[in-house]
Amino acid sequence: MKRIVVIGGGSGGVMFSNRMRGAFTPDEVEITVIERSEKHFYQPAFTLVVFDLDDPVNLMRPTKDLFFEGIKLIHDEATKIDAANNKVSTAKSGDISYDYLVIATGARLIFDEDPEGLKSALDKGTNTFNFYKLDGAIKLRDALKSLDGGTIVSSVCSMPIKCPAAPMKFIMMAEDMMREKGIRNKFKFIFTTPMPAVFSREPYASKLNSIFASRGIETVANFNPSEVDSDKGVLKDFGKKEVRFDTLTITPPHGGEAIIDNSEGVGDAAGWVTCDKNLMVSKKYSNVYGIGDATDFPTSKTASGIRKQAKVLVARLAADITGVPTKAAYDGEIICPMLTKNKRVMFAHFNYTEAISPAIESYANWVLKVHMLRPLYWNLMLNALV
Ligand SMILES: Cc1cc2nc3c(=O)[nH]c(=O)nc-3n(C[C@H](O)[C@H](O)[C@H](O)COP(=O)(O)OP(=O)(O)OC[C@H]3O[C@@H](n4cnc5c(N)ncnc54)[C@H](O)[C@@H]3O)c2cc1C
């Protein structure tokens, strides 16, 4: 009997654990998941909530209801990994030993460092918002409804972030919303990015540039926010540039979880789990694996990527346990549905080396993203059926 411990019961923790449970009996493999939260959120629909395209009640399920029978769920905070001695410390449940460890701790949103003033601006909630959390998405939805003019800014603080397209989706959808309301001429739309351009991968980058240009959405590139002054409505950057706003949505810096910093040899300086980008195994420990947003895989942090990673990880662990070799490897594939305007979505679908889909906006993609992906996630993806 092999003991697998999984830290984190988000998208990666559930997709991996259920698929692994399906591949081995409880007599062959014991699976223990350590998850601190009793609630699991379907994060890809937070952007939809902002535009009233989904109801928040559809986006949360109790974590305990998501795991297959035969998986042990411990609701606790994992505090430290002692990878040299194959054990994880927890806040309340003592030390838990493993033969294999899967780190699925996701990404942490950092509100209390740079830009200065971010937390207080968000707490005030008058003109500064963040839709990377569900309550923030609801506040932004309500604020957008009553706007009748001004400058709307979507700002990305640093990379990497979850779903790097989400802040762009927001600005394109907000522009379209005001156009449909007949008040587009009363607004200015600005997207700021720390990157040299709106998007890095072709052919999607060229397509987005032409959408932004044709719809008058301004881009401020190489912009690294240093301070939010919500009273004056000014966002400053470290290079002394300034962007004025009436309504700001800001995507905060992301980093790895504290447990990665507390644990010798598993992460880098930003707290991302350092793994082989194809084999998903830790660069230092051969029985430690990473999955999802927690890792330093050089691809976008998305649930779509995690669906692929879960299959690879189960195949690789199965090979290790049975001794039958596998060629399974993660190629960096992700699919990012970009809402460009009402009833139009473009899929950015690529892997580490190449684009897989053309840069086309379509209604069929809209139907898939807005009406089908959430039920697919709850019913099929989490249950290892696709
Ligand atoms: C606004 C937004 C839009 C998005 N849009 C898309 C999209 O269109 N398509 C797409 O595919 N993806 C999208 N994503 C990204 C997608 O939601 C994430 O990539 C995915 O959910 C990450 O899964 P994960 O398991 O790595 O992390 P999470 O699902 O965040 O889970 C991590 C879990 O680990 C737990 N945890 C962390 N540390 C500890 C600890 N020390 N002890 C115990 N438990 C711990 C946390 O409580 C959490 O439950 C979007 C995300 C956001 C925020």
Automatic annotation (TrEMBL):
The keyword Protein biosynthesis does not apply. Keywords: Oxidoreductase. Its EC number is 1.8.2.3. The keyword Oxidoreductase applies. GO terms for molecular function: sulfide dehydrogenase activity. It comes from the Bacteria. Residues 3-109 form the FAD/NAD(P)-binding domain. PANTHER family: FAD-DEPENDENT PYRIDINE NUCLEOTIDE-DISULPHIDE OXIDOREDUCTASE (PTHR43755:SF1), PTHR43755. This is FDA-dependent pyridine nucleotide-disulfide oxidoreductase.
